[in-house]
Write a structure and sequence with these properties.
Structural class: alpha/beta
Distance between the termini: 56 Å
Radius of gyration: 21 Å
Order of helices and strands: HHHHEHHEHEEHEHEHEEEH
Helix content: 40-55%
CATH class of one domain: Alpha Beta
Protein name: DNA-binding transcriptional LysR family regulator
Oligomer: single chain
Keywords: DNA-binding, Transcription, Transcription regulation
InterPro entries: HTH-type_LysR_regulators (IPR050950), LysR_HTH_N (IPR000847), LysR_subst-bd (IPR005119), WH-like_DNA-bd_sf (IPR036388), WH_DNA-bd_sf (IPR036390)
Number of helices: 11
Largest sheet: 7 strands, mixed
Pfam families: HTH_1, LysR_substrate
Number of strands: 9
Strand content: 15-25%
Shape: globular
CATH superfamily of one domain: Periplasmic binding protein-like II
CATH topology of one domain: D-Maltodextrin-Binding Protein, domain 2
Organism: Rhodoferax saidenbachensis
Length: about 325
C-alpha cells in the first residue's frame, strides 16, 4: 500500500503543475477547486518535503525558479506513471512521444482542437504538454528538451538553427471599465490607474516599450502576467490596461470597453518555434504542420503553410 505521504506529494505535484500552467495560485485554485490559501499551503509543504524552493519569492507572480521548472517536468512523468499503476499495458508505451511547450492562452484556446485532430491521424503517439512562459519554453526548444514551442515572439533574433513561423498577430487594445467615459486612449492612460502586463514577459515588454515611446507617464496600481486576471481587474474598476486581443477574447466581457489604438496599434505575435526539420521526428513534424494548418484555416494566421526558408527568423 502506498504511504499517505506519497499520496499527499502526488496531490501537491498535481497542484504545482496547475500553478505552472495557470500562472498564479488563484487561477490554479479556480481550475482545481482549491482556495488560493490552500494552494499556497500545498506549495509550502511541497518545498519543505523537497528541501529546496521551487518558486522565485521576489517575483510578483507565481514564478518558478530553474529547479522548479525541472520539478514540473519530472512531476508530469511521475504522475503519468502513478496513473498507470497496476495497468497491464504499462510495459507497452507509445512508440513515440512529442514534447510541446505552450503558453497558457494557447492551451486554453485552440490547442485541444489540434491535438484531437492529431490523435485521429497519428496512432501510438503520446503528446506531453509543457506549460511555461515564452522565455523558458524557448530555452527548452533550444536545449532539445522539447520538440516544439508555441510562444510569444521574442524581442531578439533567434539562433540560426531555430525555425520560427508566425501563427497569429494579436492587436493590443486599451481596455477600460464600461462606466469610464472617453475614447482618447492617451488621455485615459495618463488619467486612470494602470494595471500593467508583467514586464518580465515578452508581451509585457512590448507594453513597456510602447509607453516609453509614447512618452506617457502612468499611475501603476498592479502588475501581473495572467491576462484573464487583468481583464477581471479592469472589469471591477481597478484601472485600465493594454492587452493583446487573443483568441479567447474575440469578444470582451460586457463590463469592459476595448479602445482601438489606431495608427499606434502594436501586435503580439504568437508563433511556432522548433529546431531544424532534420532533428525532429516524423510525429513532431506532423504536429507542427497541423498547427500551421489550423491557423491557416481559421483566418487568424497565414493562409498557407510557410515555405521552409520562411521559417528562419533572421
Amino acid at each position: 500500500m502506498l504511504s499517505i505521504n506519497i499520496v499527499f506529494m502526488i496531490r501537491e505535484l498535481k497542484t504545482l503543475i496547475a500553478v505552472a500552467r495557470e500562472g498564479t495560485f488563484a487561477a490554479a485554485g479556480d481550475k482545481i477547486g482549491l482556495t488560493q490559501a490552500a494552494v499556497s499551503a500545498q506549495m509550502q509543504r511541497l518545498e519543505a518535503e523537497l528541501g529546496f524552493a521551487v518558486f522565485d519569492r521576489s517575483a510578483r507572480a507565481a514564478r518558478l525558479n530553474p529547479r522548479g521548472h525541472q520539478v514540473v517536468e519530472q512531476a508530469q512523468e511521475l504522475i503519468l506513471q502513478y496513473n498507470h499503476l497496476g495497468s497491464r499495458t504499462l510495459g507497452a508505451p507509445a512508440s513515440s512521444v512529442v514534447n510541446v511547450g505552450a503558453i497558457a492562452s494557447v492551451q486554453r484556446s485552440w490547442l485541444p482542437d489540434v491535438l484531437a485532430g492529431f490523435y485521429k491521424q497519428v496512432k501510438d503517439c503520446r503528446v506531453r504538454i509543457v506549460p511555461g512562459l515564452s522565455m523558458h519554453l524557448l530555452n527548452m526548444v533550444d536545449a532539445g528538451k522539447i520538440d516544439l514551442g508555441v510562444v510569444i515572439r521574442p524581442p531578439f533574433s533567434l539562433q540560426s538553427d531555430l525555425r520560427w513561423t508566425t501563427l497569429v498577430r494579436e492587436p493590443y487594445r486599451l481596455l477600460v471599465p464600461r462606466n469610464v467615459i472617453g475614447s482618447d486612449w492617451s488621455e485615459l492612460l495618463t488619467s486612470q490607474p494602470f494595471v500593467r502586463y508583467d514586464r518580465e514577459s515578452f508581451g509585457g515588454r512590448q507594453v513597456d516599450r510602447f509607453l516609453r515611446a509614447s512618452h506617457l507617464q502612468v499611475r501603476e496600481v498592479c502588475e501581473l502576467d495572467e491576462l484573464e486576471a487583468i481583464v477581471q481587474l479592469v472589469a471591477k474598476g481597478v484601472g485600465v490596461a493594454l492587452l493583446p486581443q487573443t483568441e479567447s477574447f474575440k469578444r470582451w466581457p460586457a463590463t469592459v470597453r476595448a479602445i482601438d489604438l489606431g495608427e499606434r496599434t502594436f501586435y503580439r505575435d504568437i508563433g511556432l518555434v522548433h529546431r531544424s526539420n532534420h532533428s525532429m521526428g516524423d510525429a513532431a513534424q506532423r504536429l507542427a504542420g497541423m498547427v500551421c494548418t489550423k491557423y491557416g484555416s481559421t483566418g487568424t494566421g497565414p493562409t498557407s503553410k510557410p515555405s521552409k526558408t520562411s521559417l528562419l527568423l533572421s
